[in-house]
Amino acid sequence: MKEIMLPELVIVFLLLLPVIRPFIEGLRTQEGLVWFPLIALLICIGLLPAYGFRPECVPLFVYALVVNIRKLHTLILNRNRAYIASYDGNLVPILLSLLFLSLGAGVALYFAPSVDTALLNEGVRSVRLIDGARNATIVARVYETPDANVAQTAEAHPVILMAPPALGSAPSVDRLCGQLRDNGFTVISYSRLGFDAPAVSEDGKLRYPAFGDLVGLFHTLISGTDTEKANQRGKLIEEGRRQDIEFLLSSIRAGGLGLASPGSIILAAYDAGASALIMLAASPAFVAAHPEIKGVIAVESPLWSVYQTETKAAPENASWWTRLLDNLANLWPKPVRATGELPRPAIPTLFLVSDKVTNQKERNGRYSPVVRSLRLPSSMALLIAVEGAGTLDYADYPAKYPLYSLFFSGRSRAAWRDKDFIAGTASLMGNFAALVLEQPVSGIRHWETGLSDKTYFETGGGWNLPDARSILLP
């Protein structure tokens, strides 16, 4: 979506002319230049409904806002002639303005998205589903190949059911789902109205949850592995994602999505949904009830469910002073530790994680539950960490929001360019699906990933499928 650079360049031009005005004799008497910063600010504001929130445009917006506040008295009093500029020999304000404008323009232009951020429409249909048991509305997005139909879809195009991240939701995996569809799969993504941020309604419009729920979600993502309150909320989110997935599976079986009952399903999910998938893959009852599920892809799973609250109660014979200090300590957020029972996936499971997992501190911290679950003797799982991949990179973020990808980058230089992460991730997921499908499926093959044999790769204690490394190097 490089076309966003055009309005950005117009904004920069409108903000630049008033700065260099004292040096250009023909501009000094142009009274209309006083309105240029205001026009630039209005265009900045107009980018929001046109392109959505663009974090890389924030510095440029702040600069335009500050300039307009400084010149507000000129606009209010309409004293344009008093604004006629002349160079007084003081370069400091001009140089500072040029510096801040250059920084704002540089960030906006350099981190412009490399793909269109609008939701895909061609080959995508929306289905509204009502889960009466929870009074929840789910809008599923079904990505189908042009030749797919109800009779052929299940046989010719294995299904990937994608549970998106709670923050970012369906828009954050839209291009990835489209790429998987182009690779020969029927892909189902979804959002739950009132929970996902943002959810996608049937008409393609974005719906956000209540502000308080949004703040709670942020808090959970940041502190879900640290404090009791955030962790408890995280467990509720995981449970909600589990119910979403089971409801969608039952809807697929019942034909509620307009598909024939598929013989093969791959489940994929992010953050809380990934944790829910791992727990389901470790449940004998779920595995027995869903023989059609051939594999699970868990992206950046926090596994909040295995964390427990640390309690340090004062002994019964403790002094009143010790008990008082203990009561005061209980007023602070209680820490949690990953000491609960670890899941043992009985379905082939792929953990996709950032290359930060190769850092010992991270392995003992955020990724400790995943790594320890992987190493269980009966764990039928493997873990892949692409070089330089950050915590948001196995989705649309590197191409749509490069600045977010920078803030949550991996440890090393990225193996893929920003615009290649979508195709690369789809190749990994597709290669895993091709490996675990019991029967070869027409159109499903191995795709080139562009990765080297140095990519971090680790198999679980119960992994028994051959050629697992072919997922990386087909």
How would you portray this structure in words?
It is a single chain. The protein has 474 residues and is an alpha/beta fold. The two termini are 31 Å apart. The strands form three sheets. The chain has a nine-stranded mixed β-sheet with strand order 1-2-4-3-7-8-11-12-13, with helices on both faces. Strands 5-6 form a two-stranded antiparallel sheet. The protein has helices at residues 5-20, 25-28, 36-51, 58-70, 72-77, 92-110, 153-156, 174-182, 211-223, 228-253, 271-281, 284-289, 320-329, 360-364, 368-374, 397-400, 402-407, 421-436; strands spanning 124-131, 136-143, 159-163, 186-192, 199-200, 206-207, 265-270, 293-299, 308-309, 336-337, 349-352, 381-385, 456-459. Helix 1 runs antiparallel to helix 6 (92-110) and helix 3 packs antiparallel against helix 4 (58-70). The protein contains 18 helices and 13 strands.
Instruction: Count every beta strand, where a strand is a DSSP E run of 2 or more residues.
Output: 13
Strand order of the largest sheet: 1-2-4-3-7-8-11-12-13
- What is the terminal separation in angstroms? 31 Å
- The residue-averaged pLDDT reads 87
Largest sheet: number of strands, sense, barrel closure: 9 strands, mixed
Topology of helices and strands:
Elements lengths: L4 H16 L4 H4 L7 H16 L6 H13 L1 H6 L14 H19 L13 E8 L4 E8 L9 H4 L2 E5 L10 H9 L3 E7 L6 E2 L5 E2 L3 H13 L4 H26 L11 E6 H11 L2 H6 L3 E7 L8 E2 L10 H10 L6 E2 L11 E4 L7 H5 L3 H7 L6 E5 L11 H4 L1 H6 L13 H16 L19 E4 L15
Parallel strand pairs: 3-4, 3-7, 7-8, 8-11, 11-12
Antiparallel strand pairs: 1-2, 2-4, 5-6, 9-10, 12-13
Helix pairs in contact: 1-3, 1-6, 3-4, 4-6, 8-18, 9-10, 10-11
